[in-house]
Amino acid sequence: MSQNIPSSPEPKRNFPSIFKAVQTIWKRERSITEVIIHISNALALMIVGHLLFTYVTFEKIEVVFSSVNSEILYYVLGGFIAQMIDGALGMAYGVTATTFLLSVGISPAAASASVHASEVFTSGVSGYMHLKFGNVNSKLFKTLVIPGIIGAILGAYVISSLEDYAGYIKPIVSIYTLFLGAIIIRKALIKRQEKRQLKKVGLLALFGGYLDSIGGGGWGPIVSSTLIASGRHPKYTIGSVNLTEFFVSLASSLTFFTVIGLGYWQVIIGLILGGVVAAPIAARLANKLPIKSMMILVGMVIIIVSLRQIILGADKFF
């Protein structure tokens, strides 16, 4: 007697529901900011793909990796420390990495170029997440992005043109990083700031982008701190400034590579590798560390290292 063995249920096909979801996403109204991001990502992927398929061969890859030496470990360490601090405090990646690179003998232009190249990745992810979670003020972003890019290009061109005078420029850049260290400590100690109206936001972005390229960092501490102190909402200020930082870092990096070339790829790779390793650790520790104490400690370290660079470079002037 034959038994009717029930066949296993056929997997349910959800093609109509998937199609509706895709259709809903496709028809969703997009802001101008989001459209700009997607267009920029597409252009970047096209350019990178063209460069990879045109210039990168197995022979060249082998040459690149055969030239790696033990110095890359210093840059990995610098990227790790900078990302740990940035992940815990939400700021100071650029100034920390630049201060570290200057202390191990990297020139100011090369340090800034390397930091901004690595920041393209970190700020891109950060800016996209802020955009995704609705933390970006479209009007503020539009006000910041063009002046910020112009300032970044000008600063990168100036510091690159003075590469032959690196010995003289390094203590000047160290004075700037010392100033940023003091700002970090001030942010930790001050409890309440009197709100004041800030009208010339574009000039602030131009100034912030310029100093960020020259000093290898400072976009966040200068622009975000000033805007929040003027009474703007911290959530939308930080989100808008972080998204703008991607374009500022990209413009700065392209200018550096155009002027001084790609001779510092080992520094860039080291920073990226160290940052990737540190990112998940910093994310876990972010809510467990005493933020104010960390900010004071980081500010003091930056000031001490900057003072050391200023004293060592003083011989160039006297």
From TrEMBL:
PANTHER family: MEMBRANE TRANSPORTER PROTEIN MJ0441-RELATED, MEMBRANE TRANSPORTER PROTEIN YTNM-RELATED. One of its GO terms (cellular component) is plasma membrane. Keywords: Cell membrane, Membrane, Transmembrane, Transmembrane helix. The keyword Transmembrane applies. It holds the Pfam family TauE. The chain crosses the membrane at residues 35-53, 73-95, 140-159, 165-189, 201-222, 263-283, 295-314. It is found in: Cell membrane; Membrane. It comes from Aquirufa nivalisilvae. This is Probable membrane transporter protein. Belongs to the 4-toluene sulfonate uptake permease (TSUP) (TC 2.A.102) family. It is a multi-pass membrane protein. Its main location: membrane. It comes from the Bacteria.
